[in-house]
Amino acid sequence: MKKNLLALAALTLVSGAAFAQSSVTLYGVADVGIGKEAGKKVGMMSGTYINHATSYIGFRGIEDLGGGLKAGFRLEQYVNMEDGATASANGFLRQGNETYGRAANLWLEGGFGRFKMGRSETPSYNAMTTWSIVGDANYSPSMQRYGAVGRASRASSQFSYKTPVFGGFSAEVAFVAKGDRNDKSNKYDLNVIYDNGPISAGVAYNKIQNAKANYALGAKYNFGMFALAAGYYDVRNLNSLPVGTRAKLAGYSIGASVNFDNFTLAVELQRQRKSEIYRQNMTEKYKKHTDGVVEAKYSLSKRTFVYADYFWFDNRNNYGLGIQHKF
User: Fold this and answer.
1) Are 196 and 230 in contact, with CB atoms under 8 Å apart?
2) Is residue 9 pLDDT above 70, yes or no?
3) Which residues pair with 233 in a beta bridge?
4) Which residues, 6+ apart, have CB-to-CB distance to 128 below 8 Å?
5) Contact call for residues 35 and 45 (beta carbons, < 8 A)
6) Coil, strand or helix: which one is 15?
7) In the predicted model, is pLDDT for residue 248 greater than 70?
8) Beta bridge partners of 182
9) Which residue would you say has higher pLDDT here, 52 or 95?
């Protein structure tokens, strides 16, 4: 009897230690508001240009494997706050489909850095949000105009490696094999980021095999009460163009923000210097746009803020008022 009790106690201790080394966290963002998109009437807004973010719910797991090695996963699903519809990478669905279009990946991390597999943000996207004065907001003019330097902000079937941080510097490289792409060509994506003290800067680069490369670079300086940012973008290969068609999109962005306790006011502008598409030995030139946003945010707590924004895009007015809560 005593041996059985001792064995049960030992098993309980071992199980407790094992559970203590792993955990799963539920988290997400709820963002909804009221506003008006160009060409539409005033109404509730969720997952639009006007919203600061598209709402989502996620699950994050991590296990300590010992010796400084950890394993983890991330699953994130977009949610429409108007009617509860979920969304895939192609937009909101209203048939009850549940797909983790925002993120679905598994990773290993240690002193060597982090190796990740699955659907995740691209290194180019991570670099651009480093210097954007409005971060990864839906109404970022540079992100809406240039994407993640011509490609999607997230990639499926992506292998990526991120280095440890050395003196504020880090680098990330990603690869998608031709067998996982419809056009049967490999995709490469990388960044180099410096984020230390008042300075945040980055370089983004991506390339499709046998196609022109895209790149962007920018920096942000935080003076404390206010911040300034600037970026440059050069896109030769767009995600939406058919095979055999090339593009040339180039431009720059500037931004500034000022903080008054819980209140922040930010302005970001982007101006194209070139907008051309090349097909069948012909060059088609398009209008060079100037886009911009004015954003006002007031923090109610560390996790909740209200915001108002005016977004000028494609020479059209968009504006709204919303609230965001992180959990």
Assistant:
1) no
2) no
3) 216, 251
4) 142, 143, 148, 149, 202, 204, 216, 218, 231
5) yes
6) helix
7) yes
8) none
9) 52
pLDDT score of 18: 45
90, burial (CB in 10 Å: exposed 0-12, middle 13-18, buried 19+): exposed
d(CA 223, CA 231): 18
Token pair of 237 as six digits:
């290969």
Residue identified by tokens 């060597």 is 112
The pLDDT of residue 89: 53
Q: Helix (H, G, I), strand (E, B), or coil: what is residue 292?
A: strand
In angstroms, the CA 313 to CA 139 distance is 9
| pLDDT at position 90 | 58
| Pairwise CA distance, residues 148 & 127, whole Å | 9
Token code pair at residue 275: 């907008």
**Residues 229-246 pLDDT 10s:** 999 999 998 877 776 678
Residue 155 predicted with pLDDT over 90: yes
72 near 62, Cβ under 8 Å? yes
Beta strands in the chain (DSSP E): 22-36, 43-45, 56-66, 69-79, 86-88, 91-92, 103-110, 113-121, 154-162, 169-176, 187-196, 199-208, 213-222, 226-235, 246-260, 263-279, 282-285, 290-299, 304-313, 316-326
pLDDT, tens digit, for every residue of 22-51? 899 999 999 999 999 999 999 999 999 999
